[in-house]
Amino acid sequence: xxxxxxxxxxxxxxxxxxxxxxxxxxxxxxxxxxxxxxxxxxxxxxxxxxxxxxxxxxxxxxxxxxxxxxxxxxxxxxxxxxxxxxxxxxxxxxxxxxxxxxxxxxxxxxxxxxxxxxxxxxxxxxxxxxxxxxxxxxxxxxxxxxxxxxxxxxxxxxxxxxxxxxxxxxxxxxxxxxxxxxxxxxxxxxxxxxxxxxxxxxxxxxxxxxxxxxxxxxxxxxxxxxxxxxxxxxxxxxxxxxxxxxxxxxxxxxxxxxxxxxxxxxxxxxxxxxxxxxxxxxxxxxxxxxxxxxxxxxxxxxx
Length: 303
Ligand SMILES: NC(=O)c1ccc[n+]([C@@H]2O[C@H](COP(=O)([O-])OP(=O)(O)OC[C@H]3O[C@@H](n4cnc5c(N)ncnc54)[C@H](O)[C@@H]3O)[C@@H](O)[C@H]2O)c1
Ligand SMILES: CC(C)(CO)[C@@H](O)C(=O)[O-]
Prior knowledge:
N-(1-d-carboxylethyl)-l-norvaline Dehydrogenase, domain 2, globular, binds nicotinamide-adenine-dinucleotide, 11 helices, binds pantoate
């Protein structure tokens, strides 16, 4: 399978590098990471160990592939969609956090599949990505139901020894992951703590309120996710990733823009559209925005 990975950062390099052992993979990213891959190959260390030589480019024009994986940060999704629309890709699958498939579908139509990834990846140096945790990838139709194309994508991932399954209930899975991110990411980023700090009060209270709010919005959007489902998923991830720093915590520590708009912000926006109150998500979003604004990390048109 010819695969383009659009957004060769931590997750894109890990997944794209793993796929490169079995498929024709082109990583689309930026220098110096791309330059080093072109020179010396891509080193994968940590829970996975490989040295692979995928194609790598900084040029997003004219991409042709059977499958394009989108692994840019949520706030770069529209740009990725534009670039892919100018190319010739048969299928697109996001592995991003947050609700980004709508932005992709606006530009790319029904070529877009939904995806979630719980592998942990960290870019160590240009040309070197570390797998910080094995996980699972789920792919499927945005509007639920199984499909041959989702099964084909999952089989391609499994052929490269990635843990992947096609999920006929991706809407529920995407919202469950959103509830987990809405609960963990902002609280750990603002409090400066690893995920395990949310195993009990006081952090658990705020995290679980945010997760319950997200479940209520999910149900208003027609997705069958109970408050208990959301809290159980949150508690399981807190337990499984107790020693991890969430991606938003890592972004804040590095002084980078966060994905708060695609996580807590998206919950608030969709809550408003469905007349569902989301006070905890609203407060978390405003606090992270305050941090971003103090460092000029917010886009000029942001409210
Ligand atoms: N890192 C993880 O462990 C992990 C796990 C699960 C989900 N995710 C999600 O995956 C997504 C990516 O996360 P990440 O940690 O890999 O972020 P990252 O910042 O390491 O990678 C994104 C990469 O995309 C590149 N990029 C953005 N726009 C581009 C463009 N127009 N052309 C070329 N390159 C472009 C950036 O330069 C960057 O290297 C996020 O939504 C994140 O929440 C990450
Ligand atoms: C599941 C998760 C919250 C674990 O840290 C991860 O999605 C992240 O860090 O964004």
